[in-house]
């Protein structure tokens, strides 16, 4: 069985989500550290241009976006379940809302000037400037719009008080009963805020939220061991992509298997990935592409939040 390889960097909130996913399942994995900013030549040799963090590699199969990474890890180990039976729609929809709306608020709050000054205090001014310029590019060209810090501060108490009330009234220790993808999705933007004393009070002021957050963080990160980017590329070159899912190819806009297309996120980080469309299922899209460094790989994307265009 191929190892689970996570391409990530320590301070990425969505990478923290992926690490918690691995910890929740109690999985062992290999850790490949990537740059927080472009260019990322070792990563894009595998993804074909997709630049968001994190990316999960299993042999010659490359999984983009934590929504799809969660579904792939669910296949790896069924229990404990990210999507408890009978609650699949509730927890998946809640997680998608968090990954867009709550995360957008957290980003605006983290990158307000007072927070940036503390968060990047140890970096030289040119490094801070380069990071902020990279993030400006990341959030351009897609449907996501940057929420102003003023509006994020204005709306944040509503989000948190709703969460506080929900947790105070829950009979169990987690949202919606049993722990699920909903808990992990909500924890990572709060983790992002708790990284500095400027924004930590936005979480710490809510006692039920703080207690719940500690329980979610208690899932840990599983068992990680370091791997170099070149080693990960070698794994991809030496592997054969797994068989396509046993599901009917269904593409309502008329795209066909074998067609040359591009797939890109619609919200932000909209860099297109070109390749041969192999599969379109209810949750997943798969492209075949070839790279001189990564070999033949299958790049997997969620259907939701991504678009297909003909080359």
UniProtKB/TrEMBL annotation:
SUPFAM superfamilies: GST C-terminal domain-like (SSF47616), Thioredoxin-like (SSF52833). Residues 2-81 form the GST N-terminal domain. Pfam families: GST_C_2, GST_N_3. InterPro entries: Glutathione-S-Trfase_C_sf (IPR036282), Glutathione_S-Trfase_N (IPR004045), Thioredoxin-like_sf (IPR036249). It comes from the Bacteria. CDD domains: GST_C_family, GST_N_family. This is GST N-terminal domain-containing protein. The lineage of its organism: Bacteria, Pseudomonadati, Pseudomonadota, Gammaproteobacteria, Pseudomonadales.
